[in-house]
Amino acid sequence: MPEQPRVTLYTRPGCHLCADAVAALGELGVPFTEVDITGDRELEAEYGDRIPVVMLDGKEHGYWRVEGARLLRDLATPA
Question: Is the whole model's pTM more than 0.85, yes or no?
Answer without folding.
Answer: yes
